[in-house]
Amino acid sequence: MRHGKYPFVIGFLFAPVTLYVVFVIAPYAQAFQISMTNWRGLSAPQWVGFDNYRRLLDDGRFWQAVQHHGVLLLALPLITIAIALFFAFLLNVGGRSVGGQRQGVRGSKFYRVVFFFPQVLAVAIIAVLFQMVYRPNESGLINGVLMKLGLDPVLFLIRPNLALWSIIAVLVWQAVGFYVVLFSAGMASIPGEIYEAAEMDGASKVMLFFRVTLPLLWDTLQVAWVYLGIAAFDAFAIVAVLSVDSGGPDGATTVLAVEIYRNAFVYSKYGYASAMGVALFFLTLTFAALTLRLTKRESVEY
Amino acid sequence: MAAQTTLPPAAADTPPGRPAARTRRGRGEHHEVRLFSGLGQVALAVWAVIVIVPILWTFLAAFKNTSEIFSSPWTLPAELRWENFGRAWTKAHVGRYFLNSVFVVSCSTFGTMLLGSMAAYVLARYKFRGNRAIYYLFVSGLAFPVFLALVPLFFVVRNLGLLDTHTGVILVYIAYSLPFTIFFLAAFFRTLPNSVAEAGMIDGCSHTRLFFQVMLPMAKPGLISVAIFNIIGQWAQYQLPLVLLSNAKDKWVLTQGIADISVNAGYEADWSGLFAALTIAILPMIIVYAIFQRQIQSGLTSGAVK
Question: Which domain holds residue B166?
Protein backbone atom coordinates (compact mmCIF):
# COMPACT_ATOMS: atom_id res chain seq x y z
CA MET A 1 0.00 0.00 0.00
CA ARG A 2 2.86 2.38 0.74
CA HIS A 3 3.92 2.38 -2.87
CA GLY A 4 6.94 4.44 -3.78
CA LYS A 5 7.90 5.10 -0.22
CA TYR A 6 11.67 5.06 -0.62
CA PRO A 7 12.01 7.50 -3.52
CA PHE A 8 9.81 9.88 -1.54
CA VAL A 9 11.79 9.49 1.69
CA ILE A 10 15.10 9.96 -0.06
CA GLY A 11 13.81 12.88 -2.07
CA PHE A 12 12.62 14.68 1.04
CA LEU A 13 15.75 14.00 3.08
CA PHE A 14 18.39 14.63 0.44
CA ALA A 15 18.56 18.43 0.52
CA PRO A 16 18.34 18.93 4.32
CA VAL A 17 20.84 16.18 5.10
CA THR A 18 23.33 17.38 2.48
CA LEU A 19 23.14 20.97 3.70
CA TYR A 20 23.47 19.88 7.30
CA VAL A 21 26.41 17.56 6.72
CA VAL A 22 28.31 20.10 4.59
CA PHE A 23 27.83 23.15 6.81
CA VAL A 24 27.43 21.68 10.30
CA ILE A 25 28.75 18.15 10.72
CA ALA A 26 31.84 18.47 8.53
CA PRO A 27 33.03 21.71 10.20
CA TYR A 28 32.54 20.23 13.66
CA ALA A 29 34.56 17.18 12.74
CA GLN A 30 37.28 19.28 11.13
CA ALA A 31 37.55 21.55 14.16
CA PHE A 32 39.07 18.73 16.21
CA GLN A 33 41.51 17.95 13.41
CA ILE A 34 42.57 21.57 12.82
CA SER A 35 43.11 22.07 16.55
CA MET A 36 46.00 19.59 16.30
CA THR A 37 47.81 21.63 13.64
CA ASN A 38 49.70 24.92 13.47
CA TRP A 39 47.70 26.01 10.44
CA ARG A 40 47.94 29.73 9.58
CA GLY A 41 45.91 29.50 6.38
CA LEU A 42 48.69 29.85 3.79
CA SER A 43 50.95 26.79 3.74
CA ALA A 44 49.75 23.25 4.35
CA PRO A 45 48.88 22.56 8.00
CA GLN A 46 51.50 20.73 10.07
CA TRP A 47 50.52 18.23 12.68
CA VAL A 48 51.59 19.43 16.13
CA GLY A 49 49.65 17.08 18.37
CA PHE A 50 48.56 18.65 21.63
CA ASP A 51 50.88 21.69 21.37
CA ASN A 52 47.99 24.13 20.98
CA TYR A 53 46.33 22.75 24.08
CA ARG A 54 49.59 23.03 26.05
CA ARG A 55 49.86 26.65 24.98
CA LEU A 56 46.29 27.25 26.06
CA LEU A 57 47.25 26.29 29.62
CA ASP A 58 49.84 29.11 29.71
CA ASP A 59 47.63 31.66 27.97
CA GLY A 60 46.52 34.31 30.47
CA ARG A 61 43.76 35.53 28.14
CA PHE A 62 42.30 32.05 27.87
CA TRP A 63 42.09 31.70 31.65
CA GLN A 64 40.64 35.18 31.97
CA ALA A 65 37.93 34.18 29.51
CA VAL A 66 37.24 30.90 31.33
CA GLN A 67 36.97 32.80 34.61
CA HIS A 68 34.48 35.22 33.06
CA HIS A 69 32.39 32.29 31.88
CA GLY A 70 32.39 31.10 35.48
CA VAL A 71 31.13 34.48 36.70
CA LEU A 72 28.54 34.65 33.92
CA LEU A 73 27.44 31.09 34.59
CA LEU A 74 26.62 31.89 38.22
CA ALA A 75 25.52 35.52 38.05
CA LEU A 76 23.43 35.54 34.88
CA PRO A 77 21.04 32.70 35.82
CA LEU A 78 20.85 33.64 39.51
CA ILE A 79 20.02 37.31 38.96
CA THR A 80 17.77 36.76 35.95
CA ILE A 81 15.80 33.91 37.50
CA ALA A 82 15.42 35.73 40.83
CA ILE A 83 14.04 38.89 39.23
CA ALA A 84 11.88 36.99 36.72
CA LEU A 85 10.42 34.71 39.41
CA PHE A 86 9.54 37.67 41.60
CA PHE A 87 7.80 39.47 38.74
CA ALA A 88 6.07 36.35 37.46
CA PHE A 89 4.73 35.66 40.95
CA LEU A 90 3.43 39.23 41.23
CA LEU A 91 1.86 39.10 37.79
CA ASN A 92 0.13 35.79 38.37
CA VAL A 93 -0.68 35.35 42.05
CA GLY A 94 0.39 38.67 43.59
CA GLY A 95 -3.07 40.18 43.77
CA ARG A 96 -6.14 39.15 45.69
CA SER A 97 -8.22 36.19 44.67
CA VAL A 98 -11.50 36.90 43.00
CA GLY A 99 -14.09 34.15 42.95
CA GLY A 100 -11.48 31.51 43.75
CA GLN A 101 -9.27 32.54 40.80
CA ARG A 102 -5.84 33.89 41.65
CA GLN A 103 -5.31 37.27 40.12
CA GLY A 104 -2.16 39.14 39.26
CA VAL A 105 -1.58 42.71 40.34
CA ARG A 106 -3.12 45.51 38.30
CA GLY A 107 -1.60 46.09 34.87
CA SER A 108 -0.28 42.52 34.57
CA LYS A 109 -0.88 42.37 30.86
CA PHE A 110 0.88 45.65 30.16
CA TYR A 111 3.94 44.65 32.16
CA ARG A 112 4.22 41.30 30.45
CA VAL A 113 4.15 42.94 27.02
CA VAL A 114 6.72 45.60 27.95
CA PHE A 115 9.11 43.30 29.81
CA PHE A 116 9.25 40.84 26.93
CA PHE A 117 10.07 43.38 24.27
CA PRO A 118 13.93 43.44 24.56
CA GLN A 119 13.87 39.75 23.66
CA VAL A 120 12.79 40.71 20.15
CA LEU A 121 15.80 42.99 19.61
CA ALA A 122 19.12 41.67 18.32
CA VAL A 123 21.85 41.53 20.94
CA ALA A 124 24.21 43.51 18.70
CA ILE A 125 21.63 46.33 18.48
CA ILE A 126 21.14 46.26 22.25
CA ALA A 127 24.90 46.42 22.70
CA VAL A 128 25.11 49.60 20.62
CA LEU A 129 22.14 51.03 22.53
CA PHE A 130 23.86 50.44 25.88
CA GLN A 131 27.11 51.85 24.60
CA MET A 132 25.17 55.10 24.47
CA VAL A 133 23.49 54.53 27.83
CA TYR A 134 26.83 53.85 29.53
CA ARG A 135 28.82 56.64 27.84
CA PRO A 136 31.29 58.13 30.34
CA ASN A 137 30.38 61.82 29.80
CA GLU A 138 27.29 64.08 29.67
CA SER A 139 26.03 62.34 26.55
CA GLY A 140 25.45 59.06 28.39
CA LEU A 141 21.95 58.38 29.70
CA ILE A 142 23.09 57.49 33.22
CA ASN A 143 26.13 59.72 33.55
CA GLY A 144 24.26 62.68 32.04
CA VAL A 145 21.91 62.47 35.01
CA LEU A 146 24.67 61.86 37.56
CA MET A 147 26.68 64.82 36.31
CA LYS A 148 23.63 67.09 36.33
CA LEU A 149 23.28 66.15 39.99
CA GLY A 150 26.90 67.17 40.54
CA LEU A 151 28.19 63.62 40.95
CA ASP A 152 31.23 62.08 39.35
CA PRO A 153 30.52 60.00 36.26
CA VAL A 154 30.68 56.23 36.66
CA LEU A 155 33.07 54.66 34.15
CA PHE A 156 30.91 51.60 33.52
CA LEU A 157 32.84 50.00 30.71
CA ILE A 158 36.25 51.49 31.46
CA ARG A 159 36.85 50.43 35.04
CA PRO A 160 38.07 46.82 34.77
CA ASN A 161 36.23 45.53 37.82
CA LEU A 162 32.95 47.17 36.78
CA ALA A 163 32.98 46.38 33.06
CA LEU A 164 31.91 42.74 33.27
CA TRP A 165 29.06 43.57 35.65
CA SER A 166 27.88 46.35 33.36
CA ILE A 167 27.68 43.76 30.60
CA ILE A 168 25.88 41.24 32.81
CA ALA A 169 23.35 43.97 33.67
CA VAL A 170 22.53 44.38 29.97
CA LEU A 171 22.12 40.63 29.53
CA VAL A 172 19.76 40.56 32.51
CA TRP A 173 17.89 43.57 31.10
CA GLN A 174 17.24 41.64 27.93
CA ALA A 175 16.50 38.23 29.42
CA VAL A 176 14.12 38.98 32.32
CA GLY A 177 10.99 39.43 30.20
CA PHE A 178 11.42 36.10 28.45
CA TYR A 179 11.64 34.25 31.76
CA VAL A 180 8.71 36.18 33.23
CA VAL A 181 6.60 34.84 30.37
CA LEU A 182 8.09 31.35 30.70
CA PHE A 183 7.50 31.20 34.46
CA SER A 184 4.03 32.67 34.05
CA ALA A 185 3.10 29.76 31.81
CA GLY A 186 4.44 27.39 34.48
CA MET A 187 2.57 29.15 37.27
CA ALA A 188 -0.67 29.19 35.33
CA SER A 189 -0.57 25.40 35.30
CA ILE A 190 -0.42 25.18 39.10
CA PRO A 191 -3.99 24.50 40.26
CA GLY A 192 -5.55 27.37 42.21
CA GLU A 193 -6.84 25.15 44.99
CA ILE A 194 -3.30 24.38 46.14
CA TYR A 195 -2.80 28.06 46.91
CA GLU A 196 -6.19 28.21 48.52
CA ALA A 197 -5.50 25.28 50.78
CA ALA A 198 -2.14 26.77 51.77
CA GLU A 199 -3.68 30.15 52.49
CA MET A 200 -6.36 28.53 54.64
CA ASP A 201 -3.61 26.99 56.69
CA GLY A 202 -2.36 30.52 57.29
CA ALA A 203 0.49 30.68 54.79
CA SER A 204 1.68 34.18 53.93
CA LYS A 205 2.48 35.31 50.39
CA VAL A 206 6.18 34.77 51.02
CA MET A 207 5.53 31.24 52.26
CA LEU A 208 3.23 30.60 49.31
CA PHE A 209 6.08 31.53 47.04
CA PHE A 210 8.72 29.36 48.68
CA ARG A 211 6.58 26.40 49.65
CA VAL A 212 4.14 26.14 46.77
CA THR A 213 5.26 28.03 43.67
CA LEU A 214 8.94 27.27 43.75
CA PRO A 215 8.78 23.47 44.20
CA LEU A 216 6.02 23.10 41.62
CA LEU A 217 7.99 25.18 39.12
CA TRP A 218 11.15 23.13 39.43
CA ASP A 219 11.15 21.72 35.89
CA THR A 220 10.68 25.13 34.34
CA LEU A 221 13.49 26.53 36.50
CA GLN A 222 15.77 23.79 35.27
CA VAL A 223 15.01 24.68 31.65
CA ALA A 224 15.68 28.35 32.45
CA TRP A 225 19.00 27.50 34.05
CA VAL A 226 20.12 25.49 31.02
CA TYR A 227 19.08 28.26 28.62
CA LEU A 228 20.87 30.95 30.59
CA GLY A 229 23.89 28.69 30.97
CA ILE A 230 24.09 28.31 27.21
CA ALA A 231 23.82 32.10 26.91
CA ALA A 232 26.67 32.43 29.42
CA PHE A 233 28.92 30.34 27.19
CA ASP A 234 28.10 32.49 24.17
CA ALA A 235 27.99 36.22 24.93
CA PHE A 236 29.89 36.96 21.71
CA ALA A 237 27.76 39.76 20.29
CA ILE A 238 27.38 41.64 23.56
CA VAL A 239 31.08 41.52 24.49
CA ALA A 240 32.37 42.11 20.97
CA VAL A 241 30.19 45.18 20.43
CA LEU A 242 29.64 46.68 23.88
CA SER A 243 32.96 46.31 25.66
CA VAL A 244 35.93 48.57 25.11
CA ASP A 245 38.24 47.02 22.53
CA SER A 246 36.18 43.78 22.17
CA GLY A 247 36.80 42.11 25.51
CA GLY A 248 38.68 44.94 27.15
CA PRO A 249 39.79 46.92 28.99
CA ASP A 250 42.82 44.65 28.98
CA GLY A 251 40.78 41.46 28.73
CA ALA A 252 38.56 42.37 31.70
CA THR A 253 35.41 41.26 29.90
CA THR A 254 36.69 38.83 27.31
CA VAL A 255 34.96 35.51 26.62
CA LEU A 256 36.08 32.46 24.67
CA ALA A 257 33.98 33.25 21.61
CA VAL A 258 35.68 36.64 21.30
CA GLU A 259 39.13 35.09 21.71
CA ILE A 260 38.31 32.44 19.11
CA TYR A 261 37.18 35.11 16.69
CA ARG A 262 40.25 37.26 17.36
CA ASN A 263 42.76 34.41 17.04
CA ALA A 264 41.17 33.05 13.89
CA PHE A 265 40.13 36.10 11.91
CA VAL A 266 42.53 38.78 13.16
CA TYR A 267 45.72 36.80 13.86
CA SER A 268 44.98 33.91 11.42
CA LYS A 269 45.97 31.36 14.10
CA TYR A 270 43.43 28.83 12.89
CA GLY A 271 44.87 25.86 14.75
CA TYR A 272 45.04 27.70 18.04
CA ALA A 273 41.54 29.16 17.64
CA SER A 274 40.17 25.69 16.93
CA ALA A 275 41.80 24.37 20.10
CA MET A 276 39.93 27.09 22.01
CA GLY A 277 36.75 26.01 20.27
CA VAL A 278 37.29 22.43 21.39
CA ALA A 279 37.94 23.64 24.96
CA LEU A 280 34.71 25.62 24.83
CA PHE A 281 32.88 22.56 23.57
CA PHE A 282 34.06 20.47 26.52
CA LEU A 283 33.20 23.25 28.98
CA THR A 284 29.68 23.39 27.57
CA LEU A 285 29.37 19.62 27.73
CA THR A 286 30.56 19.56 31.35
CA PHE A 287 28.04 22.24 32.25
CA ALA A 288 25.19 20.32 30.61
CA ALA A 289 26.15 17.07 32.34
CA LEU A 290 26.55 18.76 35.73
CA THR A 291 23.23 20.58 35.44
CA LEU A 292 21.36 17.42 34.60
CA ARG A 293 23.07 15.65 37.49
CA LEU A 294 22.62 18.33 40.12
CA THR A 295 19.06 19.30 39.32
CA LYS A 296 17.78 15.76 39.03
CA ARG A 297 15.07 15.50 41.56
CA GLU A 298 11.75 13.85 42.10
CA SER A 299 9.24 15.89 40.17
CA VAL A 300 6.13 16.77 42.11
CA GLU A 301 2.90 15.40 40.72
CA TYR A 302 -0.16 17.56 40.95
CA MET B 1 2.42 21.84 21.52
CA ALA B 2 3.43 21.31 25.07
CA ALA B 3 2.71 25.00 25.47
CA GLN B 4 -0.94 24.26 25.00
CA THR B 5 -1.21 20.96 26.78
CA THR B 6 0.52 22.03 29.99
CA LEU B 7 -2.14 24.59 30.75
CA PRO B 8 -5.08 22.73 32.24
CA PRO B 9 -8.00 24.88 33.33
CA ALA B 10 -6.89 25.93 36.79
CA ALA B 11 -9.99 25.49 38.88
CA ALA B 12 -11.47 22.56 37.01
CA ASP B 13 -12.06 20.27 39.95
CA THR B 14 -12.06 22.34 43.09
CA PRO B 15 -12.80 20.14 46.09
CA PRO B 16 -16.15 21.07 47.61
CA GLY B 17 -16.46 22.85 50.93
CA ARG B 18 -13.36 25.01 50.65
CA PRO B 19 -14.54 28.49 49.62
CA ALA B 20 -16.58 29.00 52.80
CA ALA B 21 -13.43 29.17 54.91
CA ARG B 22 -11.95 32.01 52.93
CA THR B 23 -13.94 34.77 54.53
CA ARG B 24 -12.70 34.53 58.06
CA ARG B 25 -9.24 35.94 57.63
CA GLY B 26 -8.41 38.94 59.87
CA ARG B 27 -7.28 42.45 59.03
CA GLY B 28 -3.60 41.50 59.39
CA GLU B 29 -3.77 39.24 56.39
CA HIS B 30 -5.47 41.91 54.35
CA HIS B 31 -2.77 44.36 55.34
CA GLU B 32 -0.01 42.02 54.30
CA VAL B 33 -1.57 41.48 50.89
CA ARG B 34 -1.80 45.22 50.32
CA LEU B 35 1.75 45.87 51.42
CA PHE B 36 3.03 43.09 49.19
CA SER B 37 1.05 44.25 46.18
CA GLY B 38 2.10 47.82 46.86
CA LEU B 39 5.81 47.01 46.92
CA GLY B 40 5.31 44.73 43.95
CA GLN B 41 3.61 47.48 41.97
CA VAL B 42 6.56 49.76 42.63
CA ALA B 43 9.07 47.12 41.54
CA LEU B 44 7.12 46.36 38.37
CA ALA B 45 6.80 50.03 37.50
CA VAL B 46 10.53 50.58 38.07
CA TRP B 47 11.44 47.69 35.77
CA ALA B 48 9.04 48.95 33.10
CA VAL B 49 10.81 52.31 33.27
CA ILE B 50 14.21 50.61 33.02
CA VAL B 51 13.06 48.80 29.88
CA ILE B 52 11.31 51.72 28.21
CA VAL B 53 13.55 54.68 29.01
CA PRO B 54 16.74 53.68 27.12
CA ILE B 55 14.65 52.98 24.00
CA LEU B 56 12.61 56.16 24.28
CA TRP B 57 15.78 58.17 24.95
CA THR B 58 17.31 56.75 21.76
CA PHE B 59 14.27 57.81 19.74
CA LEU B 60 14.47 61.34 21.14
CA ALA B 61 18.23 61.62 20.65
CA ALA B 62 17.74 60.67 17.00
CA PHE B 63 16.18 64.11 16.47
CA LYS B 64 18.85 66.07 18.34
CA ASN B 65 22.07 67.60 17.11
CA THR B 66 25.44 66.86 18.66
CA SER B 67 25.47 69.80 21.05
CA GLU B 68 22.01 68.88 22.34
CA ILE B 69 23.12 65.29 22.86
CA PHE B 70 26.06 66.46 24.94
CA SER B 71 24.22 69.12 26.92
CA SER B 72 21.74 66.90 28.74
CA PRO B 73 20.21 63.49 28.10
CA TRP B 74 16.80 64.65 29.34
CA THR B 75 15.97 67.72 27.32
CA LEU B 76 13.76 67.38 24.28
CA PRO B 77 15.20 68.18 20.85
CA ALA B 78 14.61 71.80 19.86
CA GLU B 79 13.25 70.73 16.50
CA LEU B 80 12.56 67.44 14.73
CA ARG B 81 15.66 66.96 12.64
CA TRP B 82 14.50 64.38 10.13
CA GLU B 83 17.73 64.87 8.18
CA ASN B 84 19.46 62.69 10.81
CA PHE B 85 17.42 59.78 9.49
CA GLY B 86 18.19 60.66 5.90
CA ARG B 87 21.88 60.68 6.73
CA ALA B 88 21.68 57.34 8.51
CA TRP B 89 19.57 55.74 5.75
CA THR B 90 21.75 56.76 2.80
CA LYS B 91 25.17 57.95 3.94
CA ALA B 92 25.60 55.34 6.67
CA HIS B 93 23.89 52.73 4.43
CA VAL B 94 21.38 51.65 7.08
CA GLY B 95 18.82 51.38 4.32
CA ARG B 96 20.91 48.89 2.42
CA TYR B 97 21.75 46.89 5.57
CA PHE B 98 18.09 46.80 6.46
CA LEU B 99 17.01 45.52 3.04
CA ASN B 100 19.87 43.00 3.07
CA SER B 101 18.63 41.68 6.41
CA VAL B 102 15.07 41.45 5.11
CA PHE B 103 16.23 39.58 1.99
CA VAL B 104 18.55 37.16 3.83
CA VAL B 105 16.09 36.37 6.62
CA SER B 106 13.16 35.93 4.20
CA CYS B 107 15.11 33.44 2.10
CA SER B 108 16.70 31.61 5.00
CA THR B 109 13.49 31.31 7.02
CA PHE B 110 11.59 30.08 3.98
CA GLY B 111 14.35 27.56 3.26
CA THR B 112 14.54 26.49 6.89
CA MET B 113 10.80 25.93 7.10
CA LEU B 114 10.61 24.06 3.80
CA LEU B 115 13.60 21.76 4.31
CA GLY B 116 13.02 21.45 8.06
CA SER B 117 9.37 20.45 7.74
CA MET B 118 10.16 17.99 4.92
CA ALA B 119 12.84 16.25 6.95
CA ALA B 120 10.83 16.38 10.18
CA TYR B 121 7.78 14.91 8.46
CA VAL B 122 9.66 12.01 6.93
CA LEU B 123 11.55 11.31 10.16
CA ALA B 124 8.39 11.49 12.25
CA ARG B 125 5.99 9.45 10.15
CA TYR B 126 7.91 6.99 7.97
CA LYS B 127 9.65 3.84 9.11
CA PHE B 128 12.89 3.10 7.28
CA ARG B 129 16.40 1.97 8.09
CA GLY B 130 18.56 4.76 9.42
CA ASN B 131 15.60 6.89 10.47
CA ARG B 132 16.74 7.14 14.11
CA ALA B 133 20.37 7.71 13.11
CA ILE B 134 19.46 10.66 10.89
CA TYR B 135 17.12 12.07 13.52
CA TYR B 136 19.80 11.98 16.21
CA LEU B 137 22.37 13.39 13.79
CA PHE B 138 20.14 16.44 13.44
CA VAL B 139 19.19 16.73 17.09
CA SER B 140 22.80 16.42 18.27
CA GLY B 141 23.39 19.75 16.54
CA LEU B 142 21.44 21.38 19.38
CA ALA B 143 24.27 20.57 21.78
CA PHE B 144 27.20 22.08 19.88
CA PRO B 145 28.27 25.71 20.15
CA VAL B 146 28.69 27.40 16.75
CA PHE B 147 32.11 28.73 17.79
CA LEU B 148 33.53 25.24 17.73
CA ALA B 149 32.90 25.09 14.01
CA LEU B 150 33.65 28.70 13.15
CA VAL B 151 37.10 28.23 11.60
CA PRO B 152 36.32 25.18 9.45
CA LEU B 153 32.95 26.66 8.49
CA PHE B 154 34.72 29.73 7.12
CA PHE B 155 36.89 27.51 4.91
CA VAL B 156 34.01 25.29 3.80
CA VAL B 157 32.12 28.37 2.64
CA ARG B 158 35.25 29.83 1.04
CA ASN B 159 36.07 26.63 -0.83
CA LEU B 160 32.53 26.55 -2.22
CA GLY B 161 33.11 30.07 -3.52
CA LEU B 162 30.26 31.37 -1.34
CA LEU B 163 32.27 33.70 0.89
CA ASP B 164 30.94 37.29 0.85
CA THR B 165 27.71 36.19 -0.84
CA HIS B 166 24.16 36.19 0.48
CA THR B 167 23.74 32.64 -0.82
CA GLY B 168 26.47 31.46 1.54
CA VAL B 169 24.93 33.17 4.56
CA ILE B 170 21.46 31.91 3.71
CA LEU B 171 22.62 28.29 3.33
CA VAL B 172 24.56 28.47 6.59
CA TYR B 173 21.58 29.99 8.45
CA ILE B 174 19.36 27.19 7.13
CA ALA B 175 21.86 24.49 8.10
CA TYR B 176 22.24 25.81 11.66
CA SER B 177 18.49 26.30 12.11
CA LEU B 178 17.65 22.73 11.05
CA PRO B 179 18.35 20.98 14.39
CA PHE B 180 15.80 22.92 16.42
CA THR B 181 13.29 23.13 13.57
CA ILE B 182 13.39 19.37 12.98
CA PHE B 183 13.37 18.55 16.68
CA PHE B 184 10.30 20.71 17.22
CA LEU B 185 8.37 19.84 14.06
CA ALA B 186 9.03 16.09 14.26
CA ALA B 187 7.38 16.10 17.68
CA PHE B 188 4.51 18.06 16.14
CA PHE B 189 4.00 15.77 13.13
CA ARG B 190 3.94 12.75 15.44
CA THR B 191 0.86 14.12 17.17
CA LEU B 192 -1.15 14.46 13.96
CA PRO B 193 -3.80 11.75 13.53
CA ASN B 194 -3.08 8.80 11.28
CA SER B 195 -6.62 8.50 10.00
CA VAL B 196 -6.39 11.59 7.81
CA ALA B 197 -3.17 10.42 6.22
CA GLU B 198 -4.65 6.99 5.53
CA ALA B 199 -7.79 8.46 4.04
CA GLY B 200 -5.61 10.55 1.75
CA MET B 201 -3.60 7.53 0.66
CA ILE B 202 -6.76 5.56 -0.11
CA ASP B 203 -7.99 8.43 -2.26
CA GLY B 204 -4.85 7.96 -4.34
CA CYS B 205 -2.98 10.94 -2.97
CA SER B 206 0.78 10.76 -3.56
CA HIS B 207 3.17 11.07 -0.62
CA THR B 208 4.26 14.49 -1.81
CA ARG B 209 0.72 15.80 -2.26
CA LEU B 210 -0.31 14.34 1.06
CA PHE B 211 2.48 16.31 2.72
CA PHE B 212 1.90 19.66 1.05
CA GLN B 213 -1.90 19.62 0.88
CA VAL B 214 -2.93 17.71 3.99
CA MET B 215 -0.19 17.47 6.59
CA LEU B 216 1.37 20.94 6.29
CA PRO B 217 -1.93 22.78 6.73
CA MET B 218 -2.68 20.61 9.76
CA ALA B 219 0.69 21.48 11.28
CA LYS B 220 0.12 25.22 10.90
CA PRO B 221 0.26 26.18 14.61
CA GLY B 222 3.60 24.42 15.02
CA LEU B 223 4.94 25.89 11.79
CA ILE B 224 4.06 29.42 12.89
CA SER B 225 5.82 28.99 16.25
CA VAL B 226 9.02 27.68 14.68
CA ALA B 227 8.93 30.27 11.91
CA ILE B 228 8.77 33.10 14.46
CA PHE B 229 11.55 31.47 16.45
CA ASN B 230 13.71 31.26 13.32
CA ILE B 231 12.92 34.75 12.02
CA ILE B 232 13.89 36.39 15.30
CA GLY B 233 16.96 34.21 15.74
CA GLN B 234 18.24 34.75 12.20
CA TRP B 235 17.43 38.46 12.25
CA ALA B 236 19.57 38.80 15.39
CA GLN B 237 22.54 36.84 14.00
CA TYR B 238 25.76 38.77 14.32
CA GLN B 239 28.61 36.27 14.52
CA LEU B 240 27.97 34.37 11.29
CA PRO B 241 27.59 37.38 8.95
CA LEU B 242 30.62 38.95 10.61
CA VAL B 243 32.72 35.96 9.56
CA LEU B 244 31.05 35.16 6.23
CA LEU B 245 30.50 38.64 4.77
CA SER B 246 33.47 40.53 6.20
CA ASN B 247 34.86 41.84 2.90
CA ALA B 248 31.63 42.73 1.14
CA LYS B 249 30.35 45.84 2.88
CA ASP B 250 27.47 46.27 0.44
CA LYS B 251 26.10 42.85 1.49
CA TRP B 252 26.19 43.42 5.25
CA VAL B 253 23.14 42.75 7.39
CA LEU B 254 21.65 45.20 9.88
CA THR B 255 23.30 43.98 13.10
CA GLN B 256 26.71 44.08 11.52
CA GLY B 257 26.08 47.47 9.92
CA ILE B 258 24.85 49.13 13.11
CA ALA B 259 27.80 47.76 15.10
CA ASP B 260 30.13 49.18 12.45
CA ILE B 261 28.39 52.56 12.44
CA SER B 262 28.81 52.73 16.21
CA VAL B 263 32.56 52.26 15.81
CA ASN B 264 32.75 54.95 13.12
CA ALA B 265 30.45 57.37 14.96
CA GLY B 266 33.31 57.88 17.39
CA TYR B 267 35.66 59.03 14.63
CA GLU B 268 33.15 61.13 12.75
CA ALA B 269 31.43 62.46 15.89
CA ASP B 270 28.06 61.82 14.21
CA TRP B 271 26.17 60.73 17.29
CA SER B 272 22.76 61.84 16.11
CA GLY B 273 23.25 59.76 12.97
CA LEU B 274 23.99 56.73 15.14
CA PHE B 275 20.87 57.33 17.25
CA ALA B 276 18.84 57.64 14.06
CA ALA B 277 20.35 54.39 12.77
CA LEU B 278 19.46 52.66 16.04
CA THR B 279 15.93 54.01 15.81
CA ILE B 280 15.57 52.65 12.28
CA ALA B 281 16.70 49.26 13.60
CA ILE B 282 14.45 49.22 16.66
CA LEU B 283 11.22 50.86 15.49
CA PRO B 284 10.14 48.15 13.00
CA MET B 285 10.65 45.54 15.71
CA ILE B 286 8.31 47.48 18.02
CA ILE B 287 5.67 47.63 15.30
CA VAL B 288 5.99 43.94 14.45
CA TYR B 289 5.96 43.07 18.15
CA ALA B 290 2.90 45.23 18.80
CA ILE B 291 0.98 43.38 16.08
CA PHE B 292 2.17 39.81 16.71
CA GLN B 293 2.87 40.13 20.43
CA ARG B 294 0.95 37.02 21.46
CA GLN B 295 2.33 34.80 18.69
CA ILE B 296 5.89 36.00 19.29
CA GLN B 297 5.72 35.30 23.01
CA SER B 298 4.36 31.81 22.53
CA GLY B 299 6.65 31.16 19.56
CA LEU B 300 9.81 32.04 21.44
CA THR B 301 8.89 30.30 24.68
CA SER B 302 7.51 27.17 23.01
CA GLY B 303 11.07 25.93 22.55
CA ALA B 304 11.69 26.10 26.27
CA VAL B 305 8.47 24.41 27.31
CA LYS B 306 9.38 21.29 25.33
Answer: 92-269
Q: What is the pLDDT of residue B2?
A: 36
Tens of pLDDT, residues B230-250: 998 899 899 999 999 988 888
Contact list in A for residue B225 (CB cut-off 8 A) is none
Which residue of A83, A101, A129 is in closest CB contact with B11? A101
Contact call for A105 and B278, based on CB within 8 A: no
Q: What residues of B are in contact with residue A177 (Cβ under 8 Å)?
A: 51
The alpha carbon of residue B126 is apart from the nearest alpha carbon of chain A, in Å, by 8
CB B230 within 8 A of CB B109: yes
Q: E strands of chain A, at which residues?
A: 97-98, 101-102
Q: Which residues of B178-203 are buried (b: 16+ CB within 10 A; e: fewer)?
A: bbbbbbbbbebbeebeeeebeebbee
CATH of A59-294, one of 3.30.300.210, 3.90.228.20, 3.40.190.10, 1.10.3720.10: 1.10.3720.10
pLDDT tens digit string along B269-291? 778 888 888 898 898 888 888 88
What integer is the mean pLDDT of A132-154? 84
In a domain, B137, yes or no: yes
pLDDT at B3: 37
CB-based contact A184:A112 (threshold 8 Å): yes
Helix (H, G, I), strand (E, B) or coil at A47: strand
CB pair distance less than 8 Å for A20 and B14: no
